[in-house]
Every structure is written in C-alpha cells, then in structure tokens.
Write a structure and sequence with these properties.
The protein is of the alpha+beta class. The chain has 3 domains: about 70 residues, Uridine Diphospho-n-acetylenolpyruvylglucosamine Reductase, domain 2, CATH 3.30.43; about 140 residues, Uridine Diphospho-n-acetylenolpyruvylglucosamine Reductase, domain 3, CATH 3.30.465; about 120 residues, Uridine Diphospho-n-acetylenolpyruvylglucosamine Reductase, domain 1 (Alpha-Beta Complex), CATH 3.90.78. It is about 25% helix and about 30% strand. It is built from 8 helices and 21 strands. Strands 6-7-12-10-11 form a 5-stranded antiparallel beta sheet, with no helix packed on it. Strands 1-2-5-3 form a 4-stranded mixed beta sheet, covered by helices on one side. Strands 13-19-18-17 form a 4-stranded antiparallel beta sheet, covered by helices on one side. A hairpin with a 2-residue loop joins β8 and β9. The termini are far apart. It binds uridine-diphosphate-2(N-acetylglucosaminyl) butyric acid. Uridine-diphosphate-2(N-acetylglucosaminyl) butyric acid binds next to β13 and α7.
Amino acid sequence: MSIEKHVQLKSLNTLSLNSVASDYIKIESIEALILALTYADEQHLNVLILSGGSNMLLPEKVNALIIHMNIQGIEQLDEDDQSITLKIGAGQVWHDFVLWTTTQNLYGLQNLALIPGLVGASPVQNIGAYGVEVGDFIDSVDVYDRIEKRFKSILAADCHFSYRHSIFKQDPNRFVIIYVNFKLLKNADLKLGYGDLKNAVGDEKTALNLQNQVIKIRQSKLPDPKEFPNVGSFFKNPVISKLDFEALQDKFPHVPHYLQSNDQVKIAAGWLIEQAGWKGKQLGHVGMFHKQALVLVNYADANLTEVQKTYYAVQHDVFQKFAILLEPEPVLLNEQGLITLHHLIME
Ligand code: EPU
C-alpha cells in the first residue's frame, strides 16, 4: 500500500481550489480499500472519500486520509424482457458510462449526459437534470459500511433518494460506495418534459438525439470546468410552501417555478440570483457565470475563503430581495477532512 504525503488536490477538484492533503491514496480494489481504512484507524486519521471532486469545497489544508476511489468495471447482472441490470465500478467516468449505455440501446440516463464526476458519486446527491434523477434508474448500491464494518448492498428504496439528497449525503462518513447497480430499460422511454427539450429533440425521437440535445443545451450555458473551474449549480433550487410562493408571485409575477407533488413549489435559484444582480458579477476572483447565474466560477486561483466571501454575498443579496435563503449544493470540508455545515447567511 503506498500512501502519499502532502498531496496537492487542485487538479482533483473541479473548482480548482488549492488544497494540500496530509495523506492520500488512490484505490483500485476492495482489498486496497480495506488496507487504507485500517491505516487511517491506526493513524487516527479521518477519511475523506474523493470521487470526481465536482461537488466539494476544500480548505487549504486537510489533515486526513484522502481515499481516491478508482474502482473500475462494467458487468451485467441480470436481464428480463424490459430491462438490464448492470454493476458499475465507482471509479468509472459518469459521462462515458452514459454514452456507452446509449450505444447499447439502453434507455434512461440520456438526460444526465455531460454531468461531471464519477459513477460512485452519482447516488450521493442523486444527480439530476432535465426531468430525470439518477435514483430513478438505480437498483441498489454496493457499499462498505464503516459503522457495521461490513460490505452490503442497499436497495434503492432504502437509499431515500430525493431532490439532490440521499442517505449517503445524510450520513457522509458512514458508507464507501464501491459499485452502483443500475436497472436500465430495453425499450424507448424518452423523458422530454423539461423546458424546451421536446422542441430541441423534434421529430427524431431517439436516445442518441436526446443525448446529443442535452449535451448541446448544457454546453450552451454551463461552463467547462477545465476552462472555468466550477462545481455545477452552486445552490439548490429552493422549495417553499404554496402560501409563501403566492406572496412571492404577487410581487414578482415572472418568477420561474415548478409545482411539487407535496403542495410545495420549487423556485429557480438562477433567476433569483440574476434578479439580485449577480449574473456575470464577480467579487475578487470569484463570480457567478454570465450565461447561468447558478454556477459559481473560480476565475483566478481563488482559495476557499474567497469563494465563501462571494457566495455569502450572493446569499445575502438574494435574502434581502426575496426573503429566501439559498442553500449551497456542494459539500464543505473542514481541515480534519470532515463534512461540515454551511453557514446560512441571511442579513
Ligand atoms: N434562469 C434565469 N437566470 C439564470 C439561470 C436560470 O433566469 O441565470 C431561469 C431560466 O430562465 C429558467 C430557470 O431559471 O426559467 C431554470 O434554469 P435552468 O433550466 O438552466 O435550470 P436550473 O434550475 O438553473 C437545474 C439543475 C441543474 C440541471 C438543470 C436542468 C439544480 C440546483 N440545478 O438548474 O443541475 O442541469 O436544472 O435540469 O437543481 C447541478 O446540479 O449541478 C446542475 C447543473
């Protein structure tokens, strides 16, 4: 087992934050994972599981063992008339996996094309786009449970998937995701309900065309992390009560919104941020992207403190104007490598 010391994580997180880890190891097998967890126990180090680094905010120093999950593999587990179940290694690149499913004529994940990151992170915040959430196509998740100290498979129903949430996000230090088992459809079931996706797809209603249109829409407004370091949507779309929504709509009749099944209303955070004057605006080297105000960009080597200054200012201004508190989507790590709560900035 080769633990590396003092490792720079800048190229391993898509916001490109400078962050030096005291201990780091890249894991290719279950045996190596067990050895690494034992090492962390012996050294009294916290463990931080690193996947694609596309949804995390890292401090400048992390005194913990970073376990960089790189377990590969695509295996077919099951097949019936309707579906195929596949076991996918946590270290597979998400977008490549989506493209591969389309070449295999498997339906379901096309709306989730071009999302950055790896397969193992997809259940954690139940990644979603264009009317589909990954939880809709997960059969089960194979994990190592660090509390029960054993491997187990968690059925999708027990993962408690909801909007950008799951038990893995709820209890971040407990489970190490090793494989994700997907149940994909053999017959066409294209989800075209979101925004202008239906128009973009037009008459060519194939999985490949749907996937290509999703890629085109994303490329037209979401910055490429290699050019403009970012973590995708920086805030969740807030969900408020119908009563609060009616009051908001009285004052702002054009607010984009989506009715939820539980009588609540989801509001487009990008619109709130744009109305608060932050679209294309920067504070120092950090700002909200000029084509999609929900995406925070690190324009020039900013550190976490600078990033925080900017998003606190955005939260503040949105709260002043709309009395709505925006909740950051990425997880925030402290110097001990533990996930901590974001400060909620109101005034
Ligand atoms: N809007 C603005 N100004 C902006 C951005 C958006 O007015 O600067 C308005 C748009 O005009 C539209 C509405 O807000 O009416 C929604 O915008 P969009 O379709 O771009 O989607 P979003 O709600 O901003 C969410 C997800 C994205 C996902 C898209 C498409 C969240 C937090 N974000 O964004 O997910 O790709 O829908 O489904 O739910 C991510 O999580 O990292 C992510 C990129």
